[in-house]
Write a structure and sequence with these properties.
Number of strands: 16
Largest sheet: 6 strands, mixed
Number of helices: 6
Mean pLDDT: 90
Number of domains: 1
CATH topology: Deoxyribonuclease I, Chain A
Strand content: 25-35%
CATH class: Alpha Beta
Distance between the termini: 39 Å
Low-confidence stretches: 13-21
Shape: globular
Amino acid sequence: MNKSIRRILSVLIATCLLGEARSQNIVFGAYNLQNYRLQTDASGQKPKSPASKAALTAIVSQLSPDILGVCEMASREALADLQLRLKSAGLDLPESEFVDGPDPDRHLALLSRFPIVEKSSDRQVTFELNGAPELVRRGFLDVVVQINNSYRLRLIGVHLKSKIAAPEGESMIRRMESHLLAQRISKILEREPEANLLVYGDFNDTKDQPALQSLIGERGSQQMLRDLYAIDERGECWTHYWKTADVYSRMDFLLASRGLLPEILRKQTRAHSPVNWNEASDHRLISTAITATNR
């Protein structure tokens, strides 16, 4: 092989390696764990069973996300338990965030393979409803993760008011919570219109309702978030099964900012439906893949 051919080959190899570095792909997963608790709580709710935790661990480790945002985490100890179980299954997510909101039993949390370089989570978010002070029950999880030297991903996790009836009206509480979330997102995108922002979680409502409409915003607006629409292998998009009413609904969403949208790998945005999904939770794990290069 002469020198000119070797030189061409070395350039090609270097170019390929540079391309691989620039096209680093990561996977993000969002999951309502259905009361991941280690012991019976004050209201008599039992801990998550060993079989349920084993099924959940298997489902998450099979996806092998680089970042995992979760709802209904009972405590920091429970989060550490999940972290250890995943590590034992070969998925090491050493970085974490836990939002100790007003709800005593259900909290937001996040695990990451990459460094969490900013934490702006709010555990006490207040609003007024019918002249009385109220709190966003789970707060808002808000972090920035450093994926590589040139790429940061901002993640906002939510778990809006459940459909359990409240004297003030559960739909009105959920609407107020989403309004506060929309204000938070708007401020972020006003400061940084091209921010790589992913909003995720259990919104306890469907896309046609005000709680989601206020977040998705007007088509074409700079602040608009795009629904990534996770589907399974059958083309079905439901994420939650309510056994009492035998109803399947899409309650869990991944919403991307305009700045993040070009980096989303749409064909890898999925709702996961292994045969044992309902042993782990009454929700399904949803995920997307992101090319960590600003486009």
